[in-house]
Specification:
disordered N terminus, nine-stranded mixed sheet, 19 helices, 12% strand, alpha/beta, single chain, 537 residues
Length: 537
């Protein structure tokens, strides 16, 4: 079982793919609550100042009060016990499945609270989102309290599992894998297998969860956030969102102007760059990060045996992919043996390059060394961490399989014609041989119904702090710049020289951490954009 710190670090550092390779299969235990017409555990009247003006029929949701209690769901709930020991309380918030029909079916959203201890200087409540989409955050308040240092005790820190995630009312497409992100492979035949694979995943979601799919969207999660605000009795809420959480935060500011206070968006993505092909447009940044890692690994050829120059390490990667195209690689030994083809191996390369710390680079180099030996027909024993990651990514087991894809598919429409994807793959392959076929591959969204609502557009300015690394390979620095330009009152905090996704409290850069904490403490944005520099390893 992961500690809450490990779970949060894995969850926060991912946009769409690294979670599948750095987290164990159980990020959080989903509750068994089905979509129902149940009521919240405990409800009373919230303060009048927190009520919403969203419309009639929603008062019972905004006026509820959480029935705070133990976080432990039973004797085997280690995470819940850890939260209880840390002084965290948990509750379920009732929300409508369909906000257009608030008297209809209801679902629950799991929340947690670590109350402010410096009540004399209390600022308010800060909500957390760890990205994904589909990342839980009920487990996160103790870690965020530590990250916030002296400012932490001044906030009620609120974790929540978005609708259909973790301990909230669950959605499970019963996929045989935990992520649908794959490469198109090296041939037209491998691409056609991807078309069939993605269609099969979409069919499973439709068969298992068809009645709720129209209501799985970021806009509905933002509505749930505002219900949480009302239920907490807050006039405004603050927010810390990583990666996809930055998109959710942006959507909230556009849907609920005047309801937000201090917003930090870390690894921010502009709304135009978010969609079914989540990595499209990040090819250059991903391959630059891969190249930088290759230079690091080349200096350690004696340890990893991947090549003594940057070019030779990159050539090793190419040989591994080519070998997997000729026939699946047998990776691992005994019960921990996995078969990986040319649609899966590139995914591992991309998933390993979102963190440039020495520890992360060493872990990635060890994994590539295992793959290189497998490409030569020499399978070796896997580390427990690599075995668990492969099991999660390739054989499933998550209680919320498909949630990530269904959220994205519920937000923006995808091209329907496979030929559109194939043409993009072929155009990108020459310049970006590893990343191009991943970023441009066909999406499961191509086979699901189009969203009910139009994508959110940025039409209102919003004061917030945007945190971004110049070499971020997931949500690119260019995308963070675009969001900043669309929000003139925002400020951009740049970390130069880092190929890293998710910074505040996770990367260990004192400059970034101190500036974010100053903003959270004072509520005052810097007078101008600011820059930090990556610290020496």
């Amino acid at each position: 079982m992961l500690t809450t710190t490990t779970v949060r670090r894995a969850s926060a550092a991912c946009l769409a793919l690294t979670a599948a390779l750095t987290a164990t299969p159980a990020l959080a235990t989903a509750t068994s609550t089905a979509v129902s017409t149940s009521t919240a555990t405990t409800t009373t009247t919230a303060t009048a100042t927190a009520k919403s003006s969203t419309g009639t029929g929603l008062d019972r949701y905004y006026n509820q009060r959480p029935g705070w209690g133990s976080c432990a769901k039973g004797p085997d709930d280690a995470m819940g016990r850890d939260l209880d020991k840390a002084g965290v309380q948990c509750a379920d918030i009732l929300v409508p499945l369909d906000y257009a029909d608030p008297r209809g079916r209801t679902i629950t959203v799991a929340i947690s609270r670590l109350k402010a201890t410096d009540t004399r200087h209390r600022i308010g409540s800060i909500l957390l989102n760890n990205g994904g989409p589909g990342g839980p955050a009920v487990q996160s308040p103790p870690d965020v309290r530590e990250m916030m240092k002296k400012t932490g005790p001044r906030y009620d820190i609120i974790g929540f599992d978005p609708r259909f995630v973790g301990r909230s009312t669950p959605l499970d497409c019963r996929w045989p894998v935990d992520t649908d992100i794959r490469s198109a492979g090296l041939s037209r035949a491998s691409f056609e297998r991807q078309v069939a694979f993605k269609k099969g995943l979409a069919d499973k979601c439709r068969a298992t969860s068809g009645s709720v799919l129209p209501h799985v969207s970021t806009r509905n999660t933002a509505r749930d956030m505002d219900v949480i605000r009302g239920a907490l009795g807050e006039r405004k809420i603050s927010y810390l969102g990583y990666s996809y959480g930055s998109y959710l935060g942006t959507v909230y500011t556009q849907m609920f102007p005047g309801k937000y206070d201090r917003f930090v968006l870390d690894g921010a993505i502009a709304p135009a760059d978010y969609g079914p092909r989540l990595l499209k447009g990040s090819e250059r940044e991903n391959e630059r990060a891969l190249s930088d890692w290759a230079a690091w690994a080349a200096k350690r050829h004696a340890t990893y045996g991947l090549g003594s120059t940057r070019a030779s390490v990159l050539a090793t990667l190419d040989r591994i992919v080519a070998a997997s195209a000729r026939g699946p690689l047998s990776v691992g030994t005994g019960a921990s043996t996995f078969q990986l083809d040319d649609t899966q191996v590139p995914f591992l390369f991309i998933a390993g390059n979102s963190d440039d710390t020495p520890e992360a680079r060493a872990s990635f180099a060890e994994q590539v060394s295992v793959l290189a030996k497998a490409a030569k027909g020499q399978p070796t024993e896997l580390s427990p961490e690599f075995a668990a990651a492969l099991k999660s990514a390739l054989t499933g087991g998550s209680p919320n399989s498909g949630v990530q894809a269904t959220i994205i598919c519920g937000d923006k429409p995808a091209p329907r014609d496979p030929e559109t994807y194939w043409k993009d793959i072929q155009r990108s392959r020459a310049e970006h041989p590893i990343m191009g076929p991943v970023a441009n591959n066909i999406s499961t969204c191509a086979f699901l119904d189009a969203p009910r609502e139009q994508p959110t557009q940025v039409r209102r300015d919003a004061k917030m702090l945007i945190v971004a690394a110049t070499g971020d390979p997931r949500t690119t620095y260019r995308s963070s710049l675009d969001l900043h330009k669309q929000l003139p009152s925002s400020r951009l905090l740049t970390l130069r020289g880092a190929n890293r996704h998710a910074l505040y409290g996770l990367y260990g850069n004192d400059c970034v951490d101190n500036k974010v904490n100053t903003y959270l403490a004072t509520g005052k944005l810097p007078k101008k954009d600011e820059t930090c520099v990556k610290q020496a390893d």
